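Entry for the shared binder. Reason: the reviewer on the internal report wants the predicted structure included alongside the sequence.
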Amino acid sequence: MNPDLVVGVDCSTTAAKAVVWGPEGQSTSSAKVAYELSQPRPGWGEQNAEDWWAAFTGAVRRAVQTVDAARVGAICVTHQRESFVCLDEGGQPIRPAMLWLDGRAVREVEDFGSDDVHRITGKPPNPTPGWYKLLWLARHEPETMARVAKVVDLHGFIVHRLTGEWRTSVASADPLGLVDLASGTYDTGLLEACGLDLSHMASLHAPGEILGTIRDAIADELGLVRGTLVVSGAGDGQAAQLGTGITRPGAAFLNLGSGIVSGTVSEVYSYGREYRTLCAATPGRFSLETFMGGGTFNLTWFVDRFSAVDPRALGLDVSAESILEMAASQLPPGADGLLVLPYWTGALTPYWDHDAKGAIIGLTGMHGKSHVYRGLLEGIAFEQRFLTEGADAVLPDPISRLLVLGGGSRSSVWCQIIADVMQRPVEIVRESESTCLGAGMLAAAAIKLHPDIESAANAMSGIARRHEPQPAAAAQYDRLYRVYREIYPALSPVFRGLAEVLAPDRGSP
């Protein structure tokens, strides 16, 4: 029997989810195992890398229990980006893994972030890339760096446990901020700055490349046949882009999750503060991404802290968000003069201002919960238009389509607002697990279920529904957008002054 199934595994910030995919992008079975996030101090984020492995093996084992293992030809991993772990000579963690959301390296960004580093890595200076956290470790935990034998991203950690080889995808290691994107190799100067060299790193391989086979004992543990292939994956953002079917310029994905990531493909390398540049899941191409920290997180914050909506008390089998959304849908565009700056977690592209804060502008006595909720939905849409226009300005091909995924894509009201604000059709992808599907596409191409990655993306993706801009609403939003764009420049000095008053020593151990 020739294998006709593959396993894609998404090791996110909260859990590992394994899905068994068929050649047309159909999910045959799936399983999910959660792990804990540790925040020992405000602004820090860590995990036990052994929990990554335990969740990965548990999810895969459960997912393949209901299929004929002989039909599974390959496995591929996508993962939370920028997160990494320091390992000793035996491949064991020396300290907890540091995550993408860890913001402790503020001083290191101030001391080492530069236009030259931006040019090399495609990443504007900010605490997210792993390089700044490695610099923090070199400054505050020199004993840790003295013991380091390997520094690997989550993908490289799992691949080593599966195959015994120190190999990773260039699209997985790149978000660490250690790769020269123009050459696709590690930058030795960046490594040396934090006390590392090439011997400390996993070798780099193109997405979709076969990295080896699962070791016999591990295959037995996972319930897979011996000789199952391990395929080079990509970070979760690049995998999500591939999972929506985007392999060429002209379209962008929009992931409406806790944070909101949008990206488009470019065939040439460029860098700018309006976006961050990464290696795409399609080899030889690049992903230009915008990133907004506050997405559905902002909505959950409002529901939990201020809405006081309890559907159960009303005898309703719906979520509080659904009730607020229904009420918000009755309001006109602009929420009767309420504008929201959605910087609940700071401003990323293009300002990269971690002192920025959220703001609700235009409050009067007539406004209620539904106005604020609609203002939150509209504010995120306004911000995404601003971010997309910034990226669009440097692209040879304009972004004409938006393919939407993530939890927020289930909201028809929000998706219509986005279409109206951005004046572009919004297409909701068929598969909600598009990130995991992107990993499945890479695996499917590797075992020749499809001739190549682009063919796999075309065959395994699809659209569930479409929202067209409504002319009257789009015109009103266009007028409001001109006002919205003035909010951050006007408030920036206020945010900076507030930060100086609070003056926390964010970079100290």
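Summary line for the report: The chain has 18 helices and 23 strands.
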